[in-house]
Amino acid sequence: MSTSKKTAILGSGNIGMSLAKGLVKSDYCLPGDITLTRRNVQHLAAQEQQGFKVSDDNFAAVADSTVVILAVLPQQLNILLDKIAGAIDPARHLVISVISGVSCADIRAKLGNDVQVVRAMPNTAIAIGESMTCIASDNAEAENIAEVTKMFKTVGEVIKINEDLMTSATALCACGVAFFLRAVRAASQGGVEIGFHADEALRMAAQTAKGAASLLLELNSHPEQEIDKVTSPKGCTIAGLNEMEHQGFSSSMIKGIKLSAQKAGELYTKE
């Protein structure tokens, strides 16, 4: 891959824009190094004022880049790949896909077998440098894997996994943001029930969730180890935990993740 950081993000929706903002915020590249594409470029007026290049021409954006990030909806992918195939140069381009349920082989089937493809599954926390991104490839060279790792490490944590686990990563990490946010929302509503104003309860719940996650990451400990520290015999914490379990808290989360993984695998069709 060229040492140039000229990047085309094809499909500037939530994930595409989060990625662009995160890369710039972390000083990985300048706004002018990134071309954002969207069918209606009027929706990118604010980003253009911030220095990003904007375009509704995906072919031209690819031709002017060395890194191509596919960030459209799964049902839009085949049309996009047909449009840009002629602009792809396997010797110059690295293709990164953040699209759920689409394999590296699916993309090469449209762009050519010599094209190096890396799949990446970030989440929307990439915009503030706190993404959990999983990456996988079945043909990319080590230097390209290292470059993609470097790119996404500037906006959070990165784990390299086997490609057959990428759909599962979508459910746990990408969909997972919504799951944990819903848990924080529920906790804040509980806080209102017991006497706090809504804004206070939300702030308290969010910071408590952040602290709980930080305990696991910074101490490299297990959730049950930390739970044991705040539960005492006949105490209030164990009473609350047991009531939540009786109501299906853990099993609901597990079932939701499993169903999301199943749905993620059904989003893309090769036809």
Automatic annotation (TrEMBL):
It comes from Daejeonella rubra. NADP(+) binds at residues 71-74. NCBIfam families: proC. Its EC number is 1.5.1.2. Belongs to the pyrroline-5-carboxylate reductase family. It catalyses: L-proline + NADP(+) = (S)-1-pyrroline-5-carboxylate + NADPH + 2 H(+); L-proline + NAD(+) = (S)-1-pyrroline-5-carboxylate + NADH + 2 H(+). Pfam families: F420_oxidored, P5CR_dimer. It comes from the Bacteria. GO terms for biological process: L-proline biosynthetic process. GO terms for molecular function: pyrroline-5-carboxylate reductase activity. It is an enzyme of class 1 (oxidoreductase). Residues 163-267 form the Pyrroline-5-carboxylate reductase dimerisation domain. Catalyzes the reduction of 1-pyrroline-5-carboxylate (PCA) to L-proline. The gene is proC. NADPH binds at residue 58. Residues 7-100 form the Pyrroline-5-carboxylate reductase catalytic N-terminal domain. Keywords: Amino-acid biosynthesis, Cytoplasm, NADP, Oxidoreductase, Proline biosynthesis. Gene3D superfamilies: NAD(P)-binding Rossmann-like Domain, ProC C-terminal domain-like. The keyword Amino-acid biosynthesis applies. One of its GO terms (cellular component) is cytoplasm. This is Pyrroline-5-carboxylate reductase. It is found in: Cytoplasm.
